[in-house]
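To whoever is covering the structure queue this week,

Two jobs came back overnight. Logging them here so there's a record in the thread.

Job A:
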Amino acid sequence: QVQFVESGGGLVQPGGSLRLSCAVSGSFFDIYVMGWYRQVPGKQRELVASIIGTGSTKYADSVKGRFTISRDNAKKTVYLQMNSLTAEDTAVYYCNRKGDGNFAYYRDWGQGTQVTVSS
């Protein structure tokens, strides 16, 4: 069973930056397409960024140019560098293996990490 442990969230002022990390257990990490998702209460979880094993990336329009996803296959860790944060980025952030479309591959999620952007 693959598990995800997210960290790095916190309270940041508008315009600030945070770097999230997600440690992934299990084998074959290097071939997974990994995604960072976020969820606001009352809304569906949305995919914000994804990265394939060799490093090619995709981003939601809302974060393009501000967020950067990266991975370290040796450490089985995926990162999300978030710059120029706005209040609209406030959410709980999760990682998961990306499945078909924008859906997650695994049903079970980690605990997530809270990002709050506020002055």
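Job B:
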Amino acid sequence: EVQLVESGGGLVQPGGSLRLSCAASGFPFSHYGMSWLFQRPGKGPERVAMIHSGWGHGTTTADSVKGRFTISRDDAQNTLYLQMNNLKPEDTGVYYCARNRDPDTWDYWGQGTQVTVSS
């Protein structure tokens, strides 16, 4: 059974940082590209970052978070990370870890972790 469990969310002031983690199990983690999705209240999910499988672990980040968020992975620990710096109020929402079905879609995601950026 595929399981993705996010952690690390919380309340942070504007300009602050958080590091999200996603523990993966039930599939060969190193073989799959992974993504972090972001959902605001009342909106559909959008991808903020993606990391490829294999050597090199190429990444892609959305323009809205470029230079502030960094996605990474530890294949030995089956864990995906999202380092979030210089957080802004518009970053408030639920962040999901997702397994890529292909570069544009996802087939599994976790329960999400809430990030609230507010003073």
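Note for Job B: DSSP finds no helices and eleven strands in the chain.

Please reply-all if you pick these up so we don't duplicate work.
Q.
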